[in-house]
Amino acid sequence: MVHGILPVCKLPGMSTYDVIRVFKEKTGFEGKVGHGGTLDVFASGVVYLLLGEATKWFDELLKLPKTYIAGVRLGVNSSTLDVEGSFESDLNPSRLEISDIKANLAKFKGEILQTVPAFSAAKHEGKPLYKLAREGIDIGKNRLITIYSLDIVSYKFPLVTLSVTCSSGTYIRQLTYDMFKSLNQKSFLYFLERAKVGTISVNQCIRIVDFALKWKKHLLDLNQVL
């Protein structure tokens, strides 16, 4: 039986479980398949599939730092903080200067207490928060996270692109919302790529179209991703 970590470049529009299903269909793999952390459906980038005995490495892999490229649209709020919600526009949004954004970054670096988005898969007493949110219940759950680096990649109003390296459990859409709310600016996350997990970047991952022929060539051991 084959065991190992398969780093995959997930496409937007697929869930992590879609990736697992397609992998099994294209390869005929009959062993146990898990993941090393899910990624939002609208996002793209690095997802680890755990094959065979590698499913036992989940806890170690989940702790790895992650790097994201995040695209933020200013002047519009979303009920889910991302592209999947309903929108509320600011008819006359103020134009932020890049110096204002840069000066604000320091407040969101290091160890911070983050509110878990109401529309998320995190659970409260065994029930996903998104199900509670649909019932009009907002728990206001918080968690401690670490932002190791936070930089502006590009800015041309109303679009900002950020690079974020963070601890496991960080919600990028909540981070960007909080950042721009503190500048009195509506915003939502319109693009998200997980560019790196541990030592593995997205350009080292197998493409889904190559599953059938190349998957064994991309298998890694635990020490190769830590």
UniProtKB/TrEMBL annotation:
Residue stretches making up the Pseudouridine synthase II N-terminal domain: 29-172
EC category name: isomerase
Keyword Magnesium: no
UniProt entry keywords in alphabetical sequence: Isomerase, tRNA processing
One Gene Ontology molecular-function label: RNA binding
Pfam families: TruB_N
GO annotation (BP), single: mRNA pseudouridine synthesis
Enzyme Commission code: 5.4.99.25
Catalytic activity as recorded in UniProt: uridine(55) in tRNA = pseudouridine(55) in tRNA
Protein family: Belongs to the pseudouridine synthase TruB family. Type 1 subfamily.
Name of the protein in question: tRNA pseudouridine(55) synthase
Organism of provenance: candidate division WWE3 bacterium RIFCSPLOWO2_01_FULL_37_15
Source species taxonomy: Bacteria, Katanobacteria
